[in-house]
Design a protein that fits this description.
The structure holds 3 protein chains of 3 kinds.
Chain A (H helix, E strand, L loop, with lengths): L1 H21 L3 H21 L3 H25 L15 H21 L25 H11 L1 H10 L3 H22 L13 H10 L2
Chain B lengths: L1 H7 L9 H37 L15 H11 L10 H18 L17 H9 L2 H11 L3 H24 L1 H7 L4 H11 L6 H17 L11 H4 L9 H26 L20 H32 L5 H31 L6 H32 L7 H8 L1
Helix pairs in contact in B: 2-12, 2-13, 3-12, 4-5, 4-6, 4-12, 6-7, 7-10, 7-14, 8-9, 8-14, 10-12, 10-14, 12-13, 14-15
Chain C lengths: L4 H26 L28 H26 L5 H23 L7
Classes of the chains: A mainly alpha, B mainly alpha, C mainly alpha.
C-alpha cells in the first residue's frame, strides 16, 4: 500500500518535473514546479516528517512560487516569454544539468544510512514506533515523530546553534543583496516627472 | 481541572480503523460539504441584512420570510448563468485558479478544534499546516489575474498578491507568542493551555498579538479597508474581472469561507475557543468521562464558539460598512513599518510573560499581577516606540516623499 | 501514526476540488451557451483592448516578494524555537534575540534605502 502510494507520488513528481522543463510558457513551467513541490511535500508526509511537509508547502509553494511569478512578470517580454529550447545555451544547459545530476547521484550513493549500509544498497525495514524496553533511540524516535516541531527547536538551540545563527545571517545577506541590486538609483530629473501630466503618464505605464 | 485537560490532550496519532473512517466521512460529507458552505451562504445573507441596516435600508426580504431563501435563489442564479471565458485567456489555468483558492479555504478548517474532541484532525504541527495551506490562496489569485489576459485583472492580481504576502508576515508572527506559551504547535494544545492560564487575549503581549492578527486577518481576506485588489472604482473588479457565473461564485464562496476560517482561528488562538469565561476552564471541567458530560460540555463549548465567531464576523461587516478603502502605499507601509517591527518586539515580550507567569506551571495571583503590570508597561512602551520612530522618520522625510506624483503635480 | 492525519487532508483536498468542480459541471449542463466574438473579448471598460496585456511590472513587487520569502523562512525558524522554548534556558532567548536583530537589520536596511516606499 505504502509502496504503491510512494510510486504514484514519485511518478507524478517526475511528470511535473518534466513539465517544468518542457513547458513553453514560463508561468505554466512555474506551475508545474509547484506541482513538483507538492509531490515532495507528500513524500515528507510519507516519511512521517509532517513538520517538514508543512514547511515545504509554506516556503516553496506559498513563498518561492510567488517570487518566481513576480520574477516572470519582471522579464521584459512576459507575454511572449516562451522558453527558447533551441538557443545557443542549449548545450551548456544540458552539461550543467548533467553535472548537477552526477553530483547528486554521487552524494546520495555515498551517504550512509543509520544501519550502516549504503543508501541504494539495502531497503531498511522501518522499525516499530512503539518504544521497546531498553532501546533508547526508539523512544527518542517516537518522540521526534509525535512532537517534531519541539524536537527540531531543541536541536536548533543546542546542537545546531551556530548553523542557526548563520542561517539568520544568510537571510539578512539575501535581503540586503536584493535591495542593493534592485534599487533604482534615482537620477535627478529622471525619477520625478516635471509635470502632473507626465506623472499621470508614468503612473499609467508602470502599474 | 486535571481531568478535563487530560481529556482534551488526545493523541496526535490516528489509526485507520473503521471508526476513524466513519468519523472522517461524517466530517467530510456533513461538515465540509454541508454545514460549512451552509454557514457561508447565510453569512452572505447576514452581511446584506447588516449592510442594509447600516445604510437605512431593509435588505433582502422578497424570497421567503426575512429573505431567508435568498442564498438559494443566488445559487440558482449563479448556476443558470452563462460562464464566459475570454478568448485570449489561458483556459486551463483560468479554471484552476478558483479551485486553488477554494481548496485553500477548505483546508484551513481541517485543524480547528470546535469543542473537546470535535476537531477533524490534530497533527503536532497544526499551526504550521494552517499557515501553509492558507498561503496557497495568493498563488490562486495570481493565476486568476494572469490567466485572464486582462490588464485590470493582472494589475489587481499583482496588487492583491503584494498585499497578501505583506500581511501574511505579521499574521504569522502574531501567532508566535501563542505557540511559545502553549509549547506546542497543535491547536488542541493551545486550547488546552488557555483552559489553564486564561484566554491569550487577556495578557498584554497576547492582546497586542490579537490586534495585529485581526488587522492582518482582515487584510488576508481582502475585505474593506484592505480591498485594494478589487477596488471597483479603479480596476473594475481586480483579479476576478473575467470571472462570471459560477466561477465567480467560487471566488465569492472562498472569500466568505476565508472570513469564517479566520474568525475560527482567532477564536481558538486568542479567545479560548468555546470557553465562556476567561479564567476558568468551566465547561471542560464538567467532563468526568461519561458520555452525557461530554455532550453537555461540548454543547456549551460549541454554542459559545459559534457566538464568538459570529461576533468576529459581525465586526468585519461593521468595518466594511464604516471604513473607506486605504491607499495602497499606506497599506504597505502599515504592514512593513508598523506591524512587522511590533510583532518582532512582541515575541520578546511574550518570552518575558512566559518567564513571569507561565514558567511555574500554573497561574499564581502574585506573579500574574507582576506580569500584568511589568509586561504590560513593557508592551505599551514597545507600541509607543514603534509609533514614535515612525512619526520621527516620517517627519524627517519631505512631505510628498511617499507620493512623488502628487508632489510633482503640486510643484510643477 | 501521525502521518495518517494527512490521509484526511488528502481526502479533504478531493472533497474541496469536487465541491468546486461539481457546480461547474452543472453549469455546463444547465446554463445557456451563446458564443459571440464580442462577448468573448476581454472586458476593459468596453474599450477595445490595446497593446499587450502581460506587460513588464516594476521591481518593487519583486522586492516585496523577496522580503516575504526572507521573513517567511524566519518564521519557520521561529516556530520550533517557540515550541521548544519552555524546555530551553536563557541561552535560547539570547540566541533568538541575535537572530531577530539580524533580520531586523535587514529590514532596517531596506527601510533606510527607501525600497519600502510604495510609489
Amino acid at each position: 500500500m505504502a509502496r504503491s502510494l510512494f510510486l504514484a507520488i514519485a511518478a507524478l513528481g517526475l511528470l511535473a518535473a518534466l513539465g517544468t522543463v518542457l513547458a513553453r510558457n514560463l508561468v505554466r513551467a512555474a506551475l508545474h514546479l509547484v506541482a513538483f513541490f507538492f509531490c515532495v511535500a507528500c513524500l515528507f508526509v510519507m516519511l512521517e516528517a509532517e513538520f517538514l511537509a508543512a514547511v515545504q508547502v509554506l516556503i516553496y509553494i506559498g513563498a518561492v512560487a510567488i517570487l518566481l511569478m513576480f520574477g516572470i512578470m519582471l522579464t521584459r517580454n512576459a507575454a511572449t516569454a516562451e522558453a527558447d529550447l533551441s538557443g545557443g545555451w542549449r548545450v551548456p544547459g544540458v552539461i550543467a544539468g548533467l553535472c548537477v545530476f552526477a553530483a547528486l547521484a554521487f552524494g546520495i550513493n555515498n551517504a550512509v544510512s543509520p544501519s550502516g549500509s549504503g543508501a541504494w544498497s539495502a531497503i531498511v525495514a522501518r522499525p516499530a514506533l512503539e518504544p521497546a524496553e531498553g532501546v533508547a533511540w526508539k523512544a527518542e524516535r517516537s518522540r521526534a515523530i509525535d512532537d517534531m516541531p519541539r524536537v527540531v527547536g531543541e536541536q536548533f538551540m543546542t546542537r545546531y546553534a551556530l548553523a542557526f545563527e548563520l542561517a539568520g545571517l544568510l537571510l539578512t545577506a539575501a535581503l540586503v543583496g536584493a535591495v542593493a541590486l534592485a534599487r533604482e538609483e534615482p537620477a535627478p530629473g529622471d525619477s520625478e516627472p516635471a509635470t502632473a501630466v507626465e506623472a499621470e503618464a508614468a503612473v499609467g505605464t508602470t502599474p | 481541572m486535571d481531568v478535563g485537560t487530560a481529556l482534551i490532550a488526545q493523541s496526535h496519532r490516528v489509526d485507520l480503523s473503521p471508526t476513524t473512517a466513519i468519523v472522517w466521512a461524517l466530517w467530510l460529507l456533513v461538515g465540509f460539504a454541508g454545514i460549512f458552505p451552509g454557514i457561508v451562504a447565510y453569512m452572505v445573507w447576514l452581511e446584506r441584512k447588516v449592510a442594509a441596516r447600516f445604510q437605512d435600508r431593509i435588505g433582502p426580504n422578497r424570497v421567503g420570510p426575512f429573505g431567508l431563501l435568498q442564498p438559494i435563489a443566488d445559487a440558482i442564479k449563479l448556476i443558470v448563468k452563462e460562464s464566459i471565458v475570454p478568448r485570449p485567456a489561458d483556459g486551463l489555468v483560468h479554471l484552476l485558479a478558483p479551485v486553488i483558492v477554494l481548496a485553500s479555504a477548505f483546508l484551513t478548517l481541517a485543524v480547528v478544534p470546535f469543542a473537546v474532541g470535535l476537531v477533524p484532525i490534530d497533527p503536532p504541527s497544526g499551526l504550521v499546516y494552517l499557515i501553509a495551506v492558507s498561503s496557497l490562496s495568493p498563488l490562486g489569485i495570481f493565476l486568476a489575474g494572469w490567466s485572464s489576459r486582462n490588464k485590470y485583472s493582472l494589475i489587481g492580481a499583482m496588487r492583491a498578491v503584494a498585499q497578501l504576502v505583506s500581511y501574511e508576515i505579521p499574521q504569522v508572527l502574531a501567532t508566535i507568542p501563542v505557540v511559545l506559551w502553549a509549547g506546542s504547535l497543535s491547536l488542541v494544545s493551545i486550547f488546552d493551555h488557555q483552559a489553564k492560564f486564561g484566554w491569550n487575549a487577556f495578557t498584554p503581549p497576547g492582546l497586542l498579538a490579537f490586534a495585529i492578527f485581526l488587522i492582518a486577518g482582515v487584510a488576508e481576506v481582502n475585505r474593506t479597508p484592505f480591498d485594494i485588489p478589487e477596488a471597483e472604482s479603479e480596476i473594475i473588479a481586480g483579479y476576478h474581472t473575467e470571472y462570471s457565473g459560477m466561477r465567480f461564485g467560487l471566488f465569492f464562496l472562498a472569500e466568505y469561507l476565508g472570513v469564517f476560517a479566520i474568525s475560527c482561528v482567532a477564536t481558538v488562538l486568542f479567545l479560548g475557543g468555546g470557553m465562556p469565561l476567561p479564567f476558568s476552564s468551566f465547561p471542560v471541567n464538567l467532563i468526568d468521562g461519561s458520555v452525557g458530560s461530554y455532550i453537555l460540555a461540548d454543547a456549551i463549548l460549541l454554542a459559545v464558539f459559534l457566538a464568538k465567531v459570529l461576533l468576529f464576523i459581525f465586526a468585519m461587516f461593521w468595518v466594511r460598512a464604516t471604513l473607506p478603502r486605504m491607499r495602497i502605499d499606506r497599506l504597505m507601509n502599515f504592514a512593513w513599518k508598523y506591524l512587522v517591527p511590533l510583532c518582532v518586539l512582541n515575541i520578546l515580550f511574550a518570552a518575558a510573560w512566559f518567564e513571569v507567569v507561565v514558567r511555574p506551571g500554573r497561574i499564581e495571583a502574585g506573579r500574574w499581577a507582576v506580569g500584568m503590570i511589568g509586561v504590560g508597561l513593557l508592551t505599551a512602551a514597545g507600541v509607543q516606540l514603534v509609533f514614535w520612530a515612525n512619526r520621527k522618520l516620517a517627519a524627517a522625510a519631505p512631505i510628498d516623499a511617499d507620493w512623488p506624483a502628487v508632489g510633482a503635480a503640486r510643484g510643477g | 501514526m501521525v502521518a495518517h492525519n494527512y490521509v484526511f487532508v488528502g481526502l479533504l483536498l478531493l472533497v474541496a476540488v469536487g465541491f468546486a468542480l461539481a457546480p461547474l459541471a452543472l453549469v455546463a449542463l444547465v446554463a445557456p451557451r451563446k458564443r459571440s466574438p464580442t462577448k468573448a473579448d476581454v472586458f476593459e471598460c468596453g474599450v477595445r483592448t490595446h497593446g499587450e496585456t502581460w506587460v513588464r511590472f516594476r521591481i518593487q513587487y519583486y522586492i516585496y516578494a523577496i522580503m516575504f520569502v526572507v521573513f517567511d523562512v524566519e518564521t519557520v525558524f521561529l516556530y520550533p524555537w517557540a515550541a521548544a522554548y519552555g524546555s530551553l534556558g536563557t541561552f535560547a532567548l539570547v540566541e533568538m534575540t541575535v537572530f531577530l536583530a539580524l533580520l531586523f537589520a535587514g529590514l532596517a536596511y531596506a527601510w533606510a534605502k527607501g525600497v519600502l516606499r510604495w510609489a
